[in-house]
Amino acid sequence: MAVFTYIDAAVTINGVDLSDHVTKATLKIDVEDKETTAMGSGWKSRTGGLKEGSLELELNQDFATSKVDATIWPLLGTVVAVTIKPTSAATGPANPQYSGTVLIKEYTPLDGSVGDLAKTSVSWPTSGAITRATT
User: Fold this and answer.
1) b/e per residue, 19-47, with b = 16+ CB within 10 A?
2) CA 111 to CA 115: how far, in whole Å?
3) Which residues contact 110 (CB under 8 A, 6 or more apart)?
4) Distance (Å, rounded) from C-alpha 46 to C-alpha 33?
5) In this prediction, what percent of the chain has a pLDDT beyond 70?
6) What is the mean pLDDT of the chain?
7) pTM value?
8) Residues 6+ apart with CB under 8 A from 35
9) How far apart are CA 75 and CA 97, in angstroms?
10) Are the beta carbons of 59 and 119 closer than 8 angstroms?
11) Fewest CB atoms within 10 Å of the CB: 1, 67, 96, 105?
């Protein structure tokens, strides 16, 4: 897969495929910036420290069984498995699958004004390693 339009992301939360409700998906991974500068060069030097991440999703809200609210609500306060891929195609070098766990630390089941499409946005921190699979 070369340059592509992000129209077919695959997202599962606790084994439930919510891809057909996701309108935006962001997996962000960071590493701590540790300064290692010592006397001598006049330049700062750095190394990486601990890694962390977050999964941010925007979803069309749905209160039906096995949909958005029914999946997320009972998970509030727990650490659950998530997967995300650029497309729903098979996992491979051009379509890697990122897997790990997140803490379901917040959820806004209702948010909108009159006439708005019912949506919900979440941002959950990762808990432990995120892996990248290509097979």
Assistant:
1) bebbeebebeeeeeeeeeeeeeeeeeeee
2) 12
3) 61, 118
4) 7
5) 99
6) 95
7) 0.90
8) 44, 45, 46
9) 22
10) yes
11) 1
Distance, CA of 98 to CA of 17 (rounded, Å): 14
Q: Are 52 and 110 in contact (CB under 8 A)?
A: no
Structure tokens at 8: 């077919």
Q: Give alpha helix (H) positions in the chain.
A: 68-72
> What are the tens digits of pLDDT across the range 47-86?
999 999 999 999 999 999 999 999 999 999 999 999 999 9
Closest CA to 128 of 96, 99, 92: 99
Structure tokens at 69: 């609210």
Residue type, 100: G
| φ, ψ of residue 43 in degrees (nearest 5) | -120, 145
Tokens of 49: 């420290």
In the DSSP assignment, the letter for residue 8 is B
Q: 124 has which bridge partners?
A: 55
Cα distances (angstroms) measured from residue 118 to each of 5, 63, 112: 24, 10, 7
Q: Two tokens at 60?
A: 């069309």
